[in-house]
Design a protein that fits this description.
Strand content: 5-15%
Number of domains: 1
InterPro entries: CRAL-TRIO_dom (IPR001251), CRAL-TRIO_dom_sf (IPR036865), CRAL/TRIO_N_dom_sf (IPR036273)
Protein name: Clavesin-1
Number of strands: 5
Organism: Papilio machaon (Old World swallowtail butterfly)
Pfam family, one: CRAL_TRIO
Structural class: alpha/beta
GO molecular function: phosphatidylinositol bisphosphate binding
Low-confidence stretches: 297-311
Oligomer: single chain
Distance between the termini: 51 Å
CATH topology: Phosphatidylinositol Transfer Protein Sec14p
Number of helices: 14
Order of helices and strands: HHHHHEEHEHHEHHEHHHH
Mean pLDDT: 87
Shape: globular
Radius of gyration: 19 Å
Length: 311
């Protein structure tokens, strides 16, 4: 029987053995961990644009995991994390109003499942979409995804991700409704700050225009991320990479359906304790007006999108 650790939530579970596997993989040593956290915390409190913001020791530890124990890389990741969140209030602060309405469904036009058990130290997330392209909203989608990333930073312990993206029901109408500025902000938040490594992105039920999606994403994410995209023609092909015990039953797995996972996720984020923590995480932003170096230019972050094509 697996012995999960105290203080966890049912959405995100891991054992002490899982934790040690992750630490061993990244070379994080318990003998110097507290010293590393102290050093990063001391740096954080001396940065004028960060000093007023809250930070927890366990959060620093998660960034040390991503940075494979490097203090300097950890500092860079944390600085980016607070900066990019400050520059994306529509993805961070907007959750406060959304969570103020307990009867509201946050997941409507897309579905999301976070598989509770770690698979070989990796967290699996499944995402699917409704067929109504007119309901597709990049801002809402990434607001919700980043909200779940915050939950993971609070409660999870992992080094890398596996994403399963169900492209059934999607069409060119969905792609044309993507807001490129919001997408770039979300990519920066995930790729340049949180920095959880992505082992694979499995695309299932891909439509004929699936290559357009990949070409579009090349404009925003690193090439090595695109190299990790695997398009599956059958569920049997997916099962060669992800065992059935880690998949919703929609995908030939043993877990609850994607809809059931989504409904459970929607209920859980309105739990008073979890909701309070998600709102508290909105305070994890920098004050860019106090940054000692040249003020960050938001225009540089989003780049130029004068022409987008789908060749």
């Amino acid at each position: 029987m697996m012995m999960y650790l105290d203080g966890q939530i049912n959405l995100l579970l891991y054992t002490e053995e899982d934790k040690q596997v992750v630490k061993k993989e990244v070379g994080l040593k318990d003998s110097v961990l507290e010293e590393d956290i102290d050093a990063v915390l001391e740096w954080f409190k001396k940065e004028p644009h960060l000093a007023e913001a809250p930070i927890e020791r366990h959060l620093i530890e998660k960034f040390l995991v991503v940075a494979k124990g490097s203090r300097e890389k950890t500092k860079k990741r944390i600085d980016n994390f607070y900066k990019y969140r400050a520059l994306a209030p529509e993805l961070i602060q907007s959750r406060i109003d959304a969570l103020a309405k307990p009867d509201q469904k946050l997941w409507t036009f897309f579905r999301q499942a976070i598989i509770p058990k770690l698979y070989d130290g990796k967290r699996i997330t499944v995402v699917g979409f409704s067929s109504d392209a007119s309901a597709f909203d990049t801002e809402v989608m990434y607001r919700n995804i980043i909200l779940t990333v915050d939950l993971r930073l609070k409660y999870d312990y992992m080094f890398s991700d596996i994403w399963i993206v169900d492209l059934n029901n999607t069409g060119l109408g969905h792609l044309l409704r993507v807001n490129p500025i919001i997408l770039q902000k979300a990519v920066n938040l995930y790729q340049e700050s949180v920095g959880i490594r992505v082992k694979h992105i499995h695309c299932v039920n891909a439509p004929v225009f699936g290559h357009h999606v990949v070409n579009f994403m090349k404009k925003f994410v690193k090439a090595k991320m695109i190299d990790r995209v695997i398009i599956h023609d059958t569920m049997e092909s997916l099962h060669k990479y992800v065992p059935k015990e880690y998949l919703p039953k929609d995908y030939g797995g043993d877990m609850p359906s994607l809809i059931e996972f989504t409904e459970s996720l929607n209920r859980d984020v309105f739990n008073e304790k979890i909701k309070g923590e998600l709102i508290d995480y909105c305070k994890l932003v920098s004050d860019e007006s106090k940054r000692p170096r040249e003020k960050y230019d938001e225009d540089c972050m989003v780049g130029s999108f004068k022409k987008l094509d789908f060749d």
